[in-house]
Design a protein that fits this description.
The complex is a heterodimer. Helix content of chain A is 27%, strand content 27%. By secondary structure, chain A is α+β, with helices and mostly antiparallel strands. In chain A, strands 1-2-3-4-7-6-5 form a seven-stranded antiparallel sheet, with helices on one face. In chain A, helix 1 runs antiparallel to helix 4. Chain A is globular. By secondary structure, chain B is mostly beta strands. Helix content of chain B is 10%, strand content 32%. In chain B, the strands form four sheets. Chain B has a seven-stranded mixed sheet, with no helix packed on it. Chain B has a six-stranded antiparallel sheet with strand order 1-12-11-23-24-13, with helices on one face. A six-stranded mixed barrel of chain B has the order 2-3-8-4-7-6. In chain B, a hairpin with a 6-residue loop joins strand 2 and strand 3. In chain B, helix 1 crosses helix 2. The termini of chain B are close together. In chain B, 59% of the residues are buried. Classes of the chains: A alpha+beta, B mainly beta. At the A-B interface, helix 1, strand 3, strand 4, helix 3 and helix 4 of A face helix 5 of B.
Chain lengths: 162, 444
């Protein structure tokens, strides 16, 4: 059922992944969705409520960095373009964020790519045209960065998305 | 140089460069050698053969070999009928988790029936959720006797039986905590028949789970069958999953040493090594001149890496991941290739980094790992090679130059780091002959 180290399957999935992400990009106007990556600011308000922390906003040159410190001690970072689209998320702390909520429409693509090549129990490392993700999940901590390359505003160095 | 290293080198020399030969040869050589160190008794069998063989047919199914997963065999027995035992092969070793977890589907029905879950004071069976990076493992606890070797046993140890048949549905907050709805409940989905977590900590969750309910940890269920529903509970330290080595009845409870052979940079079909129980407790596991790297005392995992001028305080020595995971300017594999995320340099690259211990870390307001204590001890330079992931023989299980992109602020020194090395893990609160340093620490 699930693609594990099934190399052919990732390639087979790519058209579907692309379609999912294109939808996310097309629908990236603010809307009531319980999603974040690829969605609008509304999703951030919901994330803030679910995480139970204040949203600290830092304006950058071409985007706004929203940082929400959850009650668990984990900080979730959401990168919002001038068009109001969340193009990257990151986190670090003792607990793992709810990725179904945080990734929204990109979650299915994340899951497919995460299992396309076996890496072990503590790492997810994805670098596809549609989604880039690095997750380090240890027994008592979690950190990660995930972004959609097509949504990153021009001039933003992806290495700065932490 | 420590005795473990020198004898391991002998074993490697004896096996020439063919890492697939002579499995477990190191241990017999070791027990025949004498030593002036510590507590004497050399007749104790404190070694487990390690195999890196790509997994069994049931584990890999149609997907080809799994590279760089290190396996041992572990025997578990029922406490109620101690002769009711089963040896489970292909249990993966992990230095970044704690506790023994076994797939219920590999246990015979007689033993499985003799391993009922422990219950709460209210009589409810206890279950656990183990969130991993790429999924979750769910199932009941069991109280079992463990035999790591004929001489190294532990009685009535809490372990997890990973199961998704005839058990309560996985709680929603387990899936949320894992960040994934992908169940790792079979040998194929998990990549192993079980997991032997011998990280630096003594319990998997620790004081947090004893103090409050933590979503994605321990649960009490109304029934152990599929009709049950489950709620978060607190768990005392003693009732949590225990580091199996720390609760052995022997004197080899302060840590482990892991020895893997050198492997050609182009890889090998398989490799064999040895897991030693105890550090500085027998004639074959002396710390010797190994350099000590303190790991942070809160999470028991982080040390520091400097790579290409970048400080990476959230770095780990992680046998449970199968490549070097780190960010670099090395050419990545094409994003549309089967190896996207891995590195694909045109020729094997010689890289260098420096590892140093750190006493404590914290997550700052931005969620970045920051050193809150001090970097401690020697900064040790480490050389490693990164090869072209697309060029490896896909039937090879031992790939010492396998590298991929990693998480910001971190260098995950996965299994390739362990080749051609003796890596010591000394548990929290424990010390080893030859050093006054108190764990948690690692040394190599």
């Amino acid at each position: 059922m699930h693609p594990l180290r099934s190399k052919p399957r990732l390639t087979a999935l790519l058209p579907r992944i692309t379609a999912v992400l294109l939808c996310a990009a097309v629908l990236a106007t603010p809307r009531p969705a319980h999603s974040a990556l690829g969605a609008g600011l509304d999703s951030l308000v919901q994330d803030q409520q679910l995480l139970g922390g204040a949203d600290v906003v830092t304006p950058m040159t071409t985007y706004d960095l929203h940082e929400i410190r959850a009650a668990s001690g984990t900080t979730v970072r959401e990168y919002v373009s001038r068009q109001g689209t969340v193009f990257a998320v990151g986190w670090g702390g003792p607990s793992h964020p709810n990725l179904q909520q945080l990734l929204g429409n990109s979650y299915a693509a994340y899951q497919a790519a995460a299992h396309a090549n076996r890496r072990g129990h503590h790492i997810v490392s994805i670098d596809t045209p549609d989604l880039v993700a690095s997750v380090l999940r240890l027994q008592r901590t979690s950190s990660g960065q995930i972004y959609v390359p097509a949504l990153v505003p021009p001039g933003v160095a992806t290495a700065s998305l932490r | 140089m420590s005795r473990v290293i020198s004898v391991a080198l002998l074993a490697i020399a004896a096996g020439a460069l063919c890492a697939c030969g002579g499995g477990g040869g190191g241990s017999s050589l070791l027990t025949s050698s004498s030593s002036g160190s510590s507590s004497g008794a050399t007749s104790v069998v404190n070694t487990l053969p390690i195999t890196i063989d790509g997994g069994t047919a049931a584990i890999v199914q149609a997907d080809g070999v799994i590279p760089n997963f290190a396996y041992v065999s572990v025997t578990i027995c029922a406490t109620s009928s101690p002769a009711n035992c089963q040896t489970i092969d292909h249990v993966q070793i992990d230095t970044q988790s704690v506790g023994l977890r076994i797939m219920g589907s590999v246990l015979n029905s007689s033993l499985l029936a003799a391993l009922p879950p422990p219950t709460t004071s209210g009589g409810q069976p206890v279950f656990e959720c183990a969130p991993f990076a790429d999924g979750y493992s769910w199932g009941p606890l069991a109280t079992a006797n463990i035999e790591l070797t004929s001489d190294e046993t532990a009685s009535s140890v809490p372990i997890q039986i990973i199961e998704d048949v005839n058990v309560p549905a996985v709680p929603a907050d387990c899936v949320d905590a894992a960040g994934s709805d992908y169940p790792e409940s079979t040998p194929a989905s998990f990549g192993a028949n079980g997991l032997l977590g011998v990280g630096t900590l003594l319990q998997d969750c620790g004081p947090d789970c004893a103090a409050e309910t933590i979503p994605g940890s321990y649960y009490a269920c109304t029934s152990a069958t599929s009709s049950g529903t489950c709620s978060d509970i607190t768990m005392s330290l003693a009732a949590q999953l225990q580091n199996p080595v720390a609760v052995l009845a022997s004197s080899d409870t302060n840590g482990v040493a892991i020895v893997l052979p050198a492997v050609s940079s182009t890889g090998a079909a398989s490799a064999s090594g040895t897991l030693y129980l105890g550090v500085g407790t027998e004639s074959n596991n002396a710390l010797g001149s190994a350099t000590i790297f303190e790991v942070d005392n809160l999470y028991g995992q982080f040390l520091d890496t400097q790579y290409t001028g970048v400080d990476l305080p959230g770095s780990v020595l992680d046998m449970g991941s199968n490549a070097y995971y780190f960010n670099s300017s090395i050419v990545p594999c094409p994003t549309n290739s089967d190896y996207s995320g891995f590195y694909c340099p045109s020729s094997t690259l010689a890289e260098s980094a420096a590892i140093q211990g750190e006493s404590s870390v914290t997550f700052d307001a931005q969620g970045q790992i920051a050193v809150s204590g001090v970097r401690t001890g020697t900064q040790e330079s480490v050389n490693f090679d990164i090869g072209n992931a697309e060029s490896f023989n896909t039937s090879f299980a031992a790939l010492p130059t396998y590298g991929a992109t990693g998480s910001s602020g971190s260098f995950d020194w996965g299994l390739p780091f362990f080749y051609n090395k003796t890596l010591f893990v000394v548990f929290q609160g424990k010390s080893a002959a030859g050093s006054s340093q108190v764990g948690p620490y690692m040394a190599f």
